[in-house]
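This section describes the prediction task in plain terms. A model, or a person checking by hand, is given the sequence of a single protein chain and must write out its three-dimensional structure as a string of tokens. No templates, partner chains or ligands are provided. The sample shown here is typical of the held-out split.
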Amino acid sequence: MVTQGKRWILWCFALMFAASSQAAVSDKSLNELLSASGVEQMVNEFPQTVKLGLVEAFKQQPDTSQKEVDDMIRAMDETIVPEQIIAEIKQSLSEKLSDAEVSSLLAWYRSPLGRAFTEAESNSSTEEAFAAMSQEAPALLKRKALMDQVGQIETLMDLTTLTVDFFEKVQLAVFAGLMSVMEPQAPVGLEVMQKELDAVRKQSEANVEQMMKVSLAYAYKDFTPEEMDKYIAFLSTPEAKKFNLTATQSMFNSLEKSFHNWAKKMGADVDEV
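The expected answer:
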């Protein structure tokens, strides 16, 4: 029995060691995947994008002091932390993807065509690109073949539903945070705002879908139909579907928590409606 007990101890130790080694390899591969796919860059740029939006919003609120804006931005720096968001994305991916799937994904993102698509997506997210996109939208919408292909990509990644769900939750959190600053003595009623969001849900989905398709068309406008088909084929693989859905959901969930923490830091009660 003692010998058998020792065997079980050694066996368990071997399993733990193997699991530890596997986790280390996966962590390194996931770091490479998040970097190669552009997810890491996008998350790192997010806080600055949010702050710019917040500043613009407060230009429409003349009663808000600069100190209140500065306090909100300071709280945002403390609650929207890219490193934490990336860590949560990696944790989610480590639970869903195998090493073989990560290797397959990296093979695409490291390929010349994969790098070209990732670079195009990154370049299309700048302020200059947004301005150019608005001007080019009518012409892009007339390119039926391109719009059909970006429609397939939008559907494969479920971008519209994920984005609308995310922004509804964020709007509630931001609304609560703003109201707690502007009217600290008044109770924050989220039920009314939730009803308003529900009432315009279909229109929001239509608007977001249109925006998504135009932004994708702008990003991919210089690729040939054959190159687009190759990208669609990649996105249709089980590992790519799993990666995109898991990474996007994890990122949105983490960002939602960050906004809730920000609203709470501003003194608002943002319990779920």
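For orientation: The radius of gyration is 22 Å.
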